[in-house]
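Moderator note: this is an archived Q&A kept for reference. The question asked for a predicted structure of one protein chain; the sequence and the answer are reproduced below.
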Amino acid sequence: MAIFAIGITIAQAQTPVTDSTSAGDSAVARPSPARKRHSHFDIGTTYQSNDVYLGRKDSLPLPYFIPSISYYHKSGLYITTSLDYLKSAAASRIDLFTIEGGYMFSAHHYEGNFTLSKYFYNSQSTSVTSAIRAAVAYQNAYDFGPIKAGLTATLNSSVKLDYEGLFEISHTFSLLKDNLDITPTLAAGGSTLNYYDYYRQRKYKITKKKKVIGTGIASVTGSVLQPSRFQLLDYEPTLPIEYSIGKFTINFTPTYSIPINPATIDIHTVKENGVATDRTKTESIGNTFYFTVGLSFLF
């Protein structure tokens, strides 16, 4: 799940810290504490070229249009809602609806953001995060001057609990009288894989369903071995770019995801005569370039 959306956020592809917790990587953006001055609404939309979460993705591209509306109180409290509309050659549907609330603050060079998120996935969704139902996250970052370092700790609730950690370093270059921000960022993320185990089992069952008919095979399932083990999963260099024109903000974030530590999948086959066999294979992973582009209006 790379999160990006409308506005500038203390999350992933924006100024302060990357938040990869969005169960759908769909992301709803929030203004950084340093820029928040008064209570306001944000409304806008984002296009995300593919759904990639910690280097993992579905076999088919999942491009989303993500409209959202948010309210930010001057105290630092905020609430936001968004939906992910899938529009591809294979399908057109609302894949995800998200409600998120939280509290952000800043103190000198330190920034923090506590977030509660609830996700409602379409039963037909093939997103790798479709098992995640809710998340609790704490994002924090410290600006050392030349480098800003950020760490996000996330607890995802799916069929079981998953623990995620994301570390990033970045630096923002402000141009055109501070209306243009360019923030080269390097992030590394890791997690347990219970949510991914659910995705692999469901995906493998759907893929193999038609192939087992008439073959003497009753069922075939695929599951991730040791899904509760925490491990580093990907590196993500990104280049968030934001340009503000009055109350409008335009964002563009290209991301290059480099997955590591492919999962080992257990293929469990049960024949019609009751005989069961198991074999293992290593999942196929590869680097992915994707991007998000968004437009928001503050009022």
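Archived answer notes: The first strand starts at residue 40 and ends at 48.
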